Amino acid sequence: MNVLGISCFYHDAAACLLKDGKVVAAAQEERFTRKKHDISFPVNAIKYCLEEGKITINDVNYIGFYEKPLLKFERLLSQHLEMFPRSFTSFFSALPSWLNEKLRVPSIIRKNLKYKGPVLFIEHHLAHAASAFLVSPFKKAAVLTIDGVGEWATAAYGYGEDNNITLLKELKFPHSLGLLYSTVTAFLGFTVNDAEYKVMGLSPYGKPIYYEQFKKIFHINDDGSMVLDMSYFDFHYKLAMPSKKFAEELGPMRKKETSIEQRHKDIAASLQKITEEVVFKMLNHVYKETKMKNLVMAGGVALNSVANGKIKRNTPFENVWVQPSASDAGTSLGAACYIYNTILGNERNYVMDSAYLGPSYSAEQVLEFLEEHKVEYTKLRDDDELIKKTAELIWKDNVIGWFQGRMEWGPRALGARSILSNPCNPKMKDILNLKVKHREYFRPFAPVIAEEDVHDYFDIDKDDEPFMLFVYPFKDDKRKLVPSVVHVDGSGRLQTISKRQNPLYYGVIKEFEKLSKVPILINTSFNIRGEPIVCTPKDAYRCMMGTGIDYLVIDKFLVARADNPKDMWDSEKHAKD
Predict the structure, then answer these.
(1) Backbone φ and ψ of 307, nearest 5°
(2) ω before 137 within 30° of 0 (cis)?
(3) Are 451 and 496 a contacting pair, CB within 8 Å?
(4) Which of 25, 144, 351, 355 has the fewest Cβ atoms within 10 Å of its own Cβ atom?
(5) Is residue 163 part of a domain?
(6) Contact, 338 vs 130, CB < 8 A?
(7) CA 56, CA 61: separation in Å to the nearest integer?
(8) Which of 68, 64, 69 minimizes the C-alpha distance to 5?
(9) Is residue 90 part of a domain?
(10) 470-473 and 557-560: which strand pairing?
(11) CA distances (Å), 491 to each of 137, 309, 353, 495, 502, in order?
(12) What does each of the 577 residues of the chain score in pLDDT, given as a tens digit?
């Protein structure tokens, strides 16, 4: 049986294919269109999923959509009628997309895909819950979902058991932790639904001196539910988030691309502190209600890796699992799983222990690209030479674009489309931020470590953390060894890797250890600021040639930026690409 899940029209459009209950392919549309957070109907992601599954649309038994559009439109009408006439401009601007797309999902699916089978609509937070629980390693688990807003819900909790999910309670719009976080993101001059992680990364540089001001902006109940004072917000009736009163409380808004002051850092720190307070109160209440030792989470707030790393210290939960594509893209997975496992009653037979679910390119395809575009390259003999050469280049402080196997599912590069470099060089963080990533100075870089070495370097109470969704403290005596991956507060957003999960990636780390005595590399996503992670050989080569990346290791081929003229790619000869 084949079930296709789809999410689109808001942000992070994506598709996921299940074959007999197993995920065979999943990808975000942005990776194909090169439009970051692309919201459009995911024709390219769907095409990829069907090709990877070796089926056509005629072989798809069910399509699942990640929300109920009519219920969402009901909320839109309700909020704008309540705020009329102030809401007229916002409502008028939103109406065309509703009339042309969001209320016509079945016809759009049938028209774009030539699909004749059933289309099922899954409520947004139920799709989040399914994406977390039904592919988790747990037979029973408490479930918490937190995001900006779905149809009406902004957070929900309940539990999963076998192939069923029960949501017990939800928090409703406009009261939303996700929307509060996005409001502060906008207030600090960053882009909403894109840069919330920047605010999280900025927070350790500040002190939570605005905590009491945040306590005026909303009230937190003992169970973690919250009530926003809507006089501080505009998002419920206009195309803006913080109100003038918000600025009166916290000072003037930061304009985009202006300098970041200590006040901005302190606001970020205060937001992170109060976010953690809300999340932990929610989780302690969820544990009280469910009495389950296992926890799964999804929704955009579940990507707050700083809070995730503190859950076990602040709640009774013993095991925590977060799906690697926890934001809206992951609801395509949840919609498909909910149909197959819960609606149709099929037993679960898949655990997501790998995020390598996207496209791959064979050695023949890579060679064809290199030859067609007259790229100078060296072919490496075998895996051993590839591993040794890459580790040597990293040890000599070269920056490596690493393109191997199937692309990752979710926002984190996990060793398939990664930039790798030397964590022992104290200057490497600045080199990457300025010359490669072209991004803010305060942004940290993540460490990847061989799984068997994790307890030597981190204060962590488990053996693996494969999806880079939890921040843990480095051990005090190890911080000086890898200065470019230790954040200002002594922590790191951790990824562990084993030989079983990714033998080449693992091999480079262990070979680097022979040279450096440290089984850690810097791993950051293979892209530059404002662009999605690279997907194709062309994307990877273009990214290298436009940055300070020194080498591209793509399949068995080594490409040096210095050997290829920078203007070659932009010449008239290649304009067709």
Answers:
(1) -65, -40
(2) no
(3) yes
(4) 351
(5) no
(6) yes
(7) 11
(8) 64
(9) yes
(10) unpaired
(11) 27, 10, 24, 13, 25
(12) 999 999 999 989 999 999 999 999 999 999 999 999 999 999 999 999 999 999 999 999 999 999 999 999 999 888 888 888 888 788 878 888 888 888 899 999 999 999 999 999 999 999 999 999 999 999 999 999 999 999 999 999 999 999 999 999 999 999 999 999 999 999 999 999 999 999 999 999 999 999 999 999 999 999 999 999 999 999 988 778 999 999 999 999 999 989 999 999 999 999 999 999 999 999 999 999 999 999 999 999 999 999 999 999 999 999 999 999 999 999 999 999 999 999 999 999 999 999 999 999 999 999 999 999 999 999 999 999 999 999 999 999 999 999 999 999 999 999 999 999 999 999 999 899 888 888 888 888 999 999 999 999 999 999 999 999 999 999 999 999 999 999 999 999 999 999 999 999 999 999 999 999 999 999 999 998 889 999 999 999 999 999 999 999 999 999 999 999 876 555 333 333 4
Q: How many domains does the chain have?
A: 3
Same domain, residue pair 311 and 334:
no
Q: Where are the alpha helices (DSSP H) in 262-325?
A: 262-290, 305-308, 311-314
Q: Which are the contacts of 444, defined by CB distance < 8 A and separation ≥ 6? A: 201, 429, 485, 487, 488, 492, 493
Q: Can you say whether the dihedral through the CA atoms of 45, 51, 52, 58 is positive or negative?
A: positive
Residue 511 in any domain: the answer is: yes
Whose tokens are 């203007």? That residue is 567
**86, amino acid identity:** R
Exposed e or buried b per residue across 82-107, where buried means at least 16 C-beta atoms within 10 angstroms of its C-beta: ebeeebeebbeebeeebeebbeebee
Do 299 and 334 fall within a single domain? no
Provide the token pair at 250. 């916290």
Cis peptide before 85 (omega within 30 of 0): yes
The answer to whether the pTM exceeds 0.90 is: yes
- Please give the single-letter amino acid code of residue 331: T
Let me know whether 203 and 249 are in one domain.
yes
Sequence-ordered alpha helix ranges (H) in 151-309 = 177-187, 196-202, 211-217, 244-250, 262-290, 305-308
Q: Which domain holds residue 510?
A: 363-574
